Amino acid sequence: MAATKNANYHDEQNKQNILKLRSVLDTLPGFCKMFFRGIEEYTSTRTRLAYAYDIRLFFEFLHDTNSVCNKMEIKDYPLSLLDNLTRMDIEEYLEYLKLYERDGKTFTNTERGIARKLASLKTFYNYYFKKELIVTNPAA
């Protein structure tokens, strides 16, 4: 009986994570869907959701701080944007993560939290780089 309850709990969590992931994907550039479909086979719904939150934060940072990115909606960013970003953009993002405000709340990240967000970004960039859809990889 316990195994059935446990399986139901995990199934329900997976369903909830999928719905949350779909909601986050609706706020991201269209090309991001390719990434999440591409990693689905070897990642859990929880991992993909965490990646989605991290990648959304990165795009929100760009929208708030980058003079090119703030001229368009995040959903409209083209894949070519990834090729135009530099190592300096990534470093500024990592600095930003130490202390930032979003929706009237102040957030901080420890070195561990920053490292996890960087790992998400590296995985994101590596996916497109290995598919030869971008030629630069400043997150590497």
Question: What attributes does this structure have?
Answer:
single chain, 140 residues, mainly alpha, two-stranded antiparallel sheet, 2 strands, 6% strand
What does this 3D model show about the protein?
By secondary structure, the chain is mainly α. The chain is 64% helix and 6% strand. Strands 1-2 form a two-stranded antiparallel sheet. The radius of gyration is 16 Å and the shape is globular. It starts with a helix and ends in a 10-residue tail after the last helix.
Uncertain runs are none
Strand content: 5-15%
CA gyration radius, whole angstroms:
16 Å
Q: Name the shape in a single word.
A: globular
- Mean pLDDT value: 94
- How many angstroms does the end-to-end distance come to? 47 Å
Query: Helix content range of the residues, please?
Result: 55-70%
Number of helices: 6
Count of individual beta strands = 2
Which sheet architecture does the biggest sheet show?
2 strands, antiparallel
**Strand sequence of the main sheet, in spatial order?**
1-2
N-to-C SSE string, H for helix and E for strand? HHHHHEEH
Structural class: mainly alpha
